[in-house]
Amino acid sequence: MSRRDRDRDGAARGSERSSERAGDRKRGAASPVTVTVCRGCCCGTEAKHPGVDHAGQYERLRTAVGSAGRVRAVKCLDVCTQSNVVVVGPSSEGRAAGGRPVWLGFVLMDEMIDDIAAWVQAGGPGLADPPGLLDLQLISVSRRVREALPD
Question: What is this structure's pTM?
Answer without folding.
Answer: 0.76
